[in-house]
Every structure is written in C-alpha cells, then in structure tokens.
Amino acid sequence: MSDERFEAGMAIRRRVMGDGYVDRAVARTEGTESAQVQRFITENVWGSVWTRDGLAPRDSSLLTIGILTALRTTEELAGHVRGALTNGLTRDEITEAIVQTAGYCGAPAALAAMRAAQQVFDEA
C-alpha cells in the first residue's frame, strides 16, 4: 500500500469530514479485520479520487451527495452533508441537490436523504 497516498487521503478526509468523524471511523475498526477497509478507502477513495484536480472539493461533495442518495446510504450521506458544508455548499444547494435526485432516484430515496440532511442541519 502507498503510504504517500494514504497520508494524502487522510489529510483530505480529515479536512472534509472533520477529525472527530475520522477518528471515530478509525477507532470503530481498530484491531479488527475491518481496519483494512478503512485503510483501503483512505488510500484509494480519498487519496486517489478526492485528491484529483478535475473537480473542486465542493463539486465532489455535490456529486457524492447525489450518489449516496441514489444508493440510499443515509449514514454515509450524513457525514458527507457535513463535509459538503465544510467544502462551501450551502444548505439550499444541498437541499436542491436532494430535490433533483427525486426525479431520478425516486421519492423514497430523496425523502430518506433529506431526513439525514435535515438532522445535520438541525445539529449545526
């Protein structure tokens, strides 16, 4: 595994998701086989995808919100809504992104996504 990509991935992951979120994710898997998945995601998703120059971080966040809504992964979505706010998206932009998904992913997926986003908005 590439320590350089891992370190780059960890830096951007912490910047977008926040130290507390990342620390909890890592701690949940420490000493287990699942720690390998955490490392893989940090190295390959954060260190190889999120570090690319093709999209600004706010655009990556916007795209990720749409994808996670489509996949109905609301637990991951909540973390990425927080990250999207960190990356400069507004509540209105996040809400509009979720409204857009209703037409393509269906109302149940959009409703579940909005519940997750609203919880994050309410906590902020």
Automatic annotation (TrEMBL):
Carboxymuconolactone decarboxylase-like domain span: 36-118
Family annotation (InterPro entries): 4CMD/NDH-1_regulator, AhpD-like, CMD-like
Domain of life: Bacteria
PANTHER family linked to this entry: 4-CARBOXYMUCONOLACTONE DECARBOXYLASE FAMILY PROTEIN, CARBOXYMUCONOLACTONE DECARBOXYLASE-LIKE DOMAIN-CONTAINING PROTEIN
Gene3D superfamilies the record matches: AhpD-like
Organism in which the protein naturally occurs: Tsukamurella soli
Descriptive protein name: 4-carboxymuconolactone decarboxylase
Pfam family, one: CMD
